[in-house]
Fold these 4 entries.
Entry 1:
Amino acid sequence: MMSDHSLYRPLRARLRDASGLAAAAAVSVAAAACSTSAPATPASTAQTAQLPPLKVVDPSYMDTTVKACTDFNLYANGGWLKRDTIPPAYSETGVFKDMADRNELVVRSVLDEALAKAKSLPDTSTEYKLGTFYGTCMDSSAAESAGVSPIAPQLASIDSITSAAALISEAARLQMAGTNVLFRYGPSVNAHDAEHYIADFDRGGLGMPDRDYYLNPAASADSMRRAYRAHVTTMLVLGGEDSAAAARDADRVMSLETAMATAQLPRVARRDPKATDHQMAFAKLHELAPDVDWAAYLRDVGLASPVSLVNVGEPAYYKALDALVAKRPLEDWRAYLRYHALSSAAPWLSSAFVNENFAFASRFSGAKALLPRWKRCLRVTDAQLGEALGQAYVAKTFPPDAKAKAKAVIDDIRAAFRERLLRLTWMSDSTRAHALDKLAKMNEKVGYPDTWRDYTRLTVTPGAFVLNNQRAARFEWERVAQRPGQPVDKSEWGITVPTVNAYYDPSKNEMVFPAGALVPQTFDPKADDGANYGSLGASWAGHEMTHGFDDEGRHYDAQGNLRDWWTPADSRRFNAQAELDAKQYDGYIQVDTFHVNGHLTLGENIADYGGALTGYDALEHALARDGRPGRIDGFTPEQRYFIAYAQSFRVHSRPEGLRTRVKVDPHSPENWRVDGPLSDMEAFAKAFGCKPGDPMVRPRAEVPNIW
Ligand SMILES: [Zn+2]
């Protein structure tokens, strides 16, 4: 289970957002929802063949009327950007959508096979569960005729709350069914004992994607608040309230959530791991928030034995929440829970719910239409039962030699990063020794898990899909419930195999690259080194590796413990260079008056820069070792390296999505992920003959010298 305090930092986290952005961002499963649509038709290999293969470097994407030294992103991607139209159901197009489209056809064939066989399988078999989960999701007419009735018992249970104790019990039930209310609880890796899990309490419970939407005095935020209030009202009416009562209840929800938002830390402040590191005896949590029976809460969420130690991410939030639980009338809380229960179920209820949910989410994403139902159902099936379909996906897409070649590129990047660490002039030898040790011990997972998740304890039944979805959320909750105090499962994967994404987890000191990301356009075992090192090497492997040493990851040691292994002088030098980086990105205007936030995006920008530098070194080594090919498509290996790097960020976004991103996404918009790092690199200027004064050549004094 990943929540928004998770330390996973995917390269790009919008197709399947693990971080709780889902309430707003893009075309996530939560944002998408259903309307009446045609039943599933089997995906054939012919359909897969309808999508042309992707190339790691594709010259047809380029616009060579733009000078490489003026705007390299436009040079490498501008031809495609000019031609591209974003389909109505999407917030953005580009490399991630193109790869996901292809992966989704493969996954669809796996699901269609399971669906076709399900009737003849015992209901205990994993394939039955997979087929039935997907099949009940695809049944739009059942969802339409059921209306709100599948969750009527949940709503009745909320309406019967008459005490603070009952409020917390109900919140626990909702959380276990996958609804984000009041706060977030879950076992996580203990920051000071990375071999064991700890019970972790963090902030949560807002309906909009960030506290800023509640607190920002700007007119744009005010219009979002008005839209949210109207949306809450509509959802409550759909749930059965009359419109006057629903409007009053929407005010209660708004007032509660604004108070909750006020007590939460800003996103940038949370980048410092120490800001959310507050371990305490379990009894202290009772002192902090005395109006909640926390022992009862932990029993409610299935923890069999009491815990002695907990981490409270934001103590001030728990203090404030406690006061709200004690002082606000229970009818405020009932309205709040009712709205969130409806909102969380909405994507899987009748079309009135689906459309209202989508209309609100699209304010943040800019998408103009729902995704086809099969894509929405496929994505939720992957999110909930991903390891049940991962094996079949791997068999169809990822032969052992592709895995071996991807690993070889990643190993070369590791060797190049090691050389950089050895060469750094600003780092003392004692810090360097720790850094080298951390790099050597950094674990890598490539392709797919060694052992697959066991779904024996999951029940999937014919009937309302929304209930199957809640059962799957509960299954996941129960899977990890007893973890506090137990040894960490190092074999676990945080994203599913068909996902076009990757992450570095500092608490395990490991980087993870699923098979779904190790296909063209990211990587092709048959492509030239320039292409593969610029894409997989730099913007994936080098990027994730550098996260171990960015402004956040550097606070963790080789074992994953939050421990300062830097000398004070090295920390000062690192921070001074990081500030240069933040200043560089603060200067980038994204859309209208919306700027990139150089501190929110600092870790990702440092990782991009480290990746681009390291991948280049690895390419030079590979060319020296394997021989230098002639020009391909008219480009030298070095030029192809930079084009591949830029094309690995080939993305076209809607302005609504960009406005949301600069507020909540730690990744800079893609054009800056290209032009930012490359304009800091001498090797780039050399490859394209750029001169001082060209826009793609930043003055050396302003260039951060971190790696
Ligand atoms: Zn990243």
Entry 2:
Amino acid sequence: MRTRFAKAVVATKALLATNAMCAGAFLCMTSLAAAQQPIVIRAGTLIDGKGSVQRNAVITIEGSKISRLGDRTEHTTYDFSRFTVLPGMIDTHVHIGEHFGKDGRASNAGETPAEQALSGAENAYAMLMAGFTTVQSIGRPSDVPLRAAIASGRLAGPRLLTSVYQLTDTRLTPEEIRQFVRKSVADGADVIKIFASKSIREGGGQTLRDEQIAAACGEARAQGKRIWVHAHAASAVRAAALSGCTAVAHGSQITDADADLMAARGTYFEPNIGLVSQNYIENKPRFLGIGNYDEAGFKFTEDGIPLKLSMFKMAIRHKDLKVIMGTDAVAGAHGQNAREVTYRVQTGGQPAMDAIVAVTSLNAEALGL
Ligand SMILES: [Zn+2]
């Protein structure tokens, strides 16, 4: 993280100031908020988030959108001519409400709703200051007022998208699953989230049957919503891709054939290899003893790190597979989101520009932004 890339992140501060999150400046529309004074940024180097680099760029931002990209200006708000500027980063998978409570534990025992709400605000601020201007929360109902507070400008944070709920009950009938999707939409979900496999701490085997996955993905499409499918087992990944889900998260047990299938079906693939497991291990005493965070679960987590790394190296060899950037940030990980990006480059061997494109324009596309 403490690399040249980190310096580039620092130089995003001006973009953060306006929450500008257009990953392709040329494609961005001028904001309606033209009454505000435009912000003009001089960039020594501009990385546009789509794979191109421009020297001595001048970026004009009106409202929350980049309205112009040129090479000269009369007036400069922020002079970053010694720095590199890139679009605000996007994380497609965080749990913005998760935090360590008063007792230092991830279980948050004895907290009031007000204390929990403040932790959501703290996580939002930490991620914004780390260069993330949009995050998608695999969510809970308290994300809804947090999203509204950020959107209205009352609270500093990245633009927030949320699933509001997560489907984990494997006993639901296909019709009950469709009802779950409709309730999520009615209660304000931007995205639907279902668990189609166990946690990696329990081996990751498929949990929802193929027809349950198909019911969820079909109803999400019918409602015009995206759907994120948690799946470690290859069988669950295949069912999700064949059902037309938007994205598969994790995919730790996939093979070349599954990567080919996702590529052919246009399924976004969100591996999480560089932050979530490492954060659990670094904070082991804060998780140990809660639910499936037992010694056996930690063994699965530790053993999974090299397996997920080799899976990622395989996945990025599939040039037609859309590998997006999500961290699965839980308690302790918010604000460290860029570790996933640097790990992919430094340890996973992904070209740096591919990683930057993933965390900016490809993620924007996957979120429908
Ligand atoms: Zn997650």
Entry 3:
Amino acid sequence: MTPRWFPDEMPMPAASAETVGWWEAAADHRLVVQRCTACGTTRHPPGPVCPRCRSATSEWATLPGTGHVYTYTVVRQAFIPSLRDRIPYVVIAVDLDGAGGARLVSNLVDADPGEVTVGMPVEVVWEDMGPELAVPRFRPAPAPADRETR
Ligand SMILES: [Zn+2]
């Protein structure tokens, strides 16, 4: 079991025919992005048709799990009662390395909310919310120049 940052009472994501492959990869702790097999354009959230070329064929490209904060907000209100002792927490939009510009909305964890900045390097950490559900969160990472070659 992975570390836990959020309570069991968090609203569960609803997988659709388009997103089930993404959630299956997440359950295996693999961060993926949907890539059009006709033109190579990536997209997130997953969808049935490429927004660039209208092809309905796609594949899941595995990402390294690193990126940087595109934007963020600090949440100071407990929108469900069990979040009362978890606030403040940080919601981030992550520019994912290798994702062709696709971004993912997630949370910054293992960091003081006051230290988040636009452009902050982050890396994925997984939170198992149940036997078949893992949610990607992100923690501060070394700057890309300091990272080992992957
Ligand atoms: Zn396409």
Entry 4:
Amino acid sequence: MINYTERIALLMQDIVSRTPRLSFIDLSEVLVFARFGRSEAEGAFATCHCLTLPESEPGYFFWRDRTTGELTRRGDTSIKYLISFVIPRFCDQVLERTRKADLYPGAEPWIAKLDTVVHELYHIDPEESGIRRFVRADGTDSIRTHGPQFYEEVAEMVRAYLASKPDPQMYEFLNDDFAALTAKYGGVVSTTFRNFPSFPQRYMERLEMPPADCSVRIEPLKPLTQPVLYTEQDLHIRQFTGSRTNRLARKGQGQAA
Ligand SMILES: [Zn+2]
């Protein structure tokens, strides 16, 4: 079977190594995982989730090594970003009759997927302050994370990447839609979180506050429905079919939850 998120992560490595504007990205700090989403339904193809809010932020959530308490993943690197791909929707993305088509006249349909991969990488902020912000033409900071310029810059990077003559094996898998991948490889698997279809979310935490002014009404927080700590143990490989997913047992591990 083809491990789709692993193939995307390898492709990202190649893109980052050939794209000066993305060369600051350390992919050991980026985790690629899959979410489920039907191809026929409206919705995102991929999302960049940022974990680089300061630790002092009440909304901060993090990835902590269970034994050392360090903020780590596989070794000694903090995870700063999660990038999710929606399967099978991403695999079935086309270029025709989309906004992207104008940016890639005459290009093959799979270029739309390469565009999405570069797009998500471009959201990673070189200042490590979260999701990249854009500067307006007058030099002021825009709170928007996308503007027409964003899409054009992504397309420039996609064209430059292909012009750098990468090994076609790096991106060939983008050529197949979900049905073709399933037929060719006997199945599509991807990294997911144990609590699939969920994944790490921002959460709120109760803070000790001085006695409130009695005119201020204090609402209790809803109990958390999500873990606040995720570790490598929470990663599961799942098989995606067109309509559902199945958990696969990991080598050397039982089915224990
Ligand atoms: Zn975006």
